[in-house]
Fold:
Amino acid sequence: MKHLVIKQLWPVVGLCLLFSCAKEPSFNYPEGTVGISKVVNFPSVAIKGERLIIQNQGVAYTEPGVEAFLQGQTVQYATSGTVDANTPGVYELVYSASSPDGYSASDWRTVVIMSTAADVTSNNYAGTYKRDQNGLNMVWTKTGRGLYDVENPGGADAGVGFVVKLVNYQGSKIAIPKQQAYDPSISGLNTIKSTSEVYRPAAVPVTVDWILQAGGYGTGLRTFKKL
Structure:
């Protein structure tokens, strides 16, 4: 019986010796790698100051700047776009940084230069506008010189409570400058701006057209008539 027990133990002892002699794995990988995988580092870019800046024509624009990092270290960034503080308009700035591996990150800001002409002061475009395509309303509320809050800029069923900033920056020129605003339909921020804007204050009734660039709004031209 003792010989049998010893014979049965030999395979177990052999396995223990086999594994005890196995080489321990090395974790001393070359810098920038983990095993056979390469470590990838992504830059980060975040603006300082406000995302939407509105100021009067002729006032020097002061750039708040951005923070750009790679692996916790400050890195250089590039700026696309410029601001002409003497010319009314809507200016978009994009800031970007890249890693040596070619990965990039970016952030953006919108600057509106408002005309100082008297017509911008006297214009009052506040009111309710009905969308031609479906009969739904959007509402403009004047908040300052050439400035409006617009609720439901898309004239959509889900647009109630979606309020964005609109500027009447020169004459009858208007725009929803690129911005982020809380959109109840998605319970979060939506990035939105308008293009192809035409405001016809002399039309009967007053008419406004634009295309909205925002998540979930499509690319069709939207036409509204003032009630």
Q: What stands out?
A: Residues 118-226 form one domain. The first helix runs from residue 2 to 20. The radius of gyration is 30 Å.
